[in-house]
Predict the structure of Outer membrane protein beta-barrel domain-containing protein.
Amino acid sequence: MKHRILLILLLVLCGEWVSAQKTETKDTPSTDTIQIKGLIILKSRNEKGRNSYKFYRDTAYARNKLKRNLHTKWFVFDIGFNNYIDKSDYGGASFINYYPNNYMYYNGAQGSVVNRAYDYSPAALANFAPREASNPLTPSEFKLITGKSINFNIWLFQQRLNITKHKLNLLYALGLEMNNYRYARSITYLPGYPTQIIRDTVEFSKNKLFAEYISIPLMLNFNSNPARPGRAFQASFGVSGGYLLKSRTKQISEERGKVRKTDDFNLNKWRFGLTSELGYGPVKLYGNFALTPLHDYGLQQYPFSIGLRLNGF
């Protein structure tokens, strides 16, 4: 009898202990740890049973990265706006249109039709964008809608090579630069040889020129805090070279509908310029300025773009 009573008491105590363990396990929230490169994410449940997240920087990961002299990022994206500085000689082109027989003596210098038709002289501009003397060519004809002249770049890879203590680096990349120039006026590119730009009689709801380049920028990069990139100030400045891959125009109007034309449109095949970026932590701004004109002759317009750079992975 005594043995039975002791056995029952032992079973009761074991049951209470198991129940207490289950209650303790239920009350203790479980925590999941997720690490994405240098970012640590702790996922847990609060007292109300809702998910809560905490984010931490893994400083050990950043220190280990400093042991490597070459760092690579894949698929860096830029989004910004295009415009250009126009240095075309509109006054000279108007003079030539008004006095077609005296253009060789414009501005006191004698010229030649053959030698001056494919440069940035007034004669070349008058050939590229011919106008009537009574309605001369003006810079306003090439005015852009800045908010719709979008620049979008995809850098397939970007590498940073350590020069001095990871604070001074060589930064270079390879990618595609895609430039949209949205015209505010009704002008039309006529493909052919030579290409011409005319005033059109149609009002366009969309009138744009698209140019895509494969480009290689090369910059010197300064990083104020290599061990903690999330709190580092960065500045880069250098040069960039690119080659024209394709170009096209797109026009939309009620009279003609949607019209696309593909040609080189007298655009420069090669483009060289200055490039830079400025940022703090993950936020970066970029700027590009071309040292070569957009067109091969006639119009002397130097494009530039500014915008936001999104870090790759």
